[in-house]
Amino acid sequence: MNVLVIGANGQIGSRLIRLLAHEGKHQVKAMVRKQEQGDQLRAEGIEPVFANLEDRVDVLVEAIKGSDAIVFAAGSGGSTGLDKTLLIDLDGAVKTMEAAEKAGVKRYVIVSAMQAHNRDNWSEAIKPYYAAKHYADRMLETTGLDYTIVRPGGLKNDPGTGRISAAENLEPGSIPRDDVAAVIAEVLEDRNTYRRAFDLISGDTPISEAFGS
């Protein structure tokens, strides 16, 4: 598969593109905004695609064309304002869904947030972020895309363990970003995960066995 990772300069996206490149099963393209980011990726043998989530949908269509799968791992980050949460985590995500449909790309994996589907469990401290994730996920579920919604718990920079717990609803927990990237790589071709959404934390099940493939 030709996989386009949106948010390739982020903490999960950067791990994912390097994991995919190392595995060699798929061709990987990395969507970034800045030339210096692209230069670094080229030096590592990864093809950059230049686009901005605040661009028009037709611009994003051009960036997406030729891909077999899209991974949306972008986020506005904790240092930006609520305007960027709205424009990146919600509208930016939805625009890539629209662009994927226009470009004829069916496979779409999005990184959401644990319990984003359940308003009762949203963190008060970052409720606007949860709202953005919630409605982006709901929009994705209305599309004709073969989507998977991955909702990780608290993200850590510890080395991955390769063992997880994944289910529609889980108690609060955490997970290394390495393992989130590994899960995305695992589910890309797994039809058992099409049109499914799940919470994701560290657990006892090997990633290769977690989705019944």
Walk me through what this model shows.
The chain has helices at residues 11-23, 35-43, 57-64, 82-103, 127-142, 177-187, and strands at residues 2-6, 27-32, 47-50, 69-72, 107-111, 146-152, 154-156, 163-167, 174-176, 196-202, 205-206. The protein is built from 6 helices and 11 strands. The longest helix is centred in the middle third of the chain and has 22 residues, at 82-103. It is 37% helix and 24% strand. The model has no long low-confidence stretch (mean pLDDT 96). The strands form 2 sheets. Strands 3-2-1-4-5-6-10-8-11 form a 9-stranded mixed β-sheet, sandwiched between helices. The protein has a two-stranded parallel ribbon with strand order 7-9. Helix 1 (11-23) crosses helix 6 (177-187) and helix 4 packs parallel to helix 5. With 213 residues, the chain is of the alpha/beta class.
Task: Summarize the SSE layout with pairings.
Elements: E1 2-6, H1 11-23, E2 27-32, H2 35-43, E3 47-50, H3 57-64, E4 69-72, H4 82-103, E5 107-111, H5 127-142, E6 146-152, E7 154-156, E8 163-167, E9 174-176, H6 177-187, E10 196-202, E11 205-206
Parallel strand pairs: 1-2, 1-4, 2-3, 4-5, 5-6, 6-10, 7-9
Antiparallel strand pairs: 8-10, 8-11
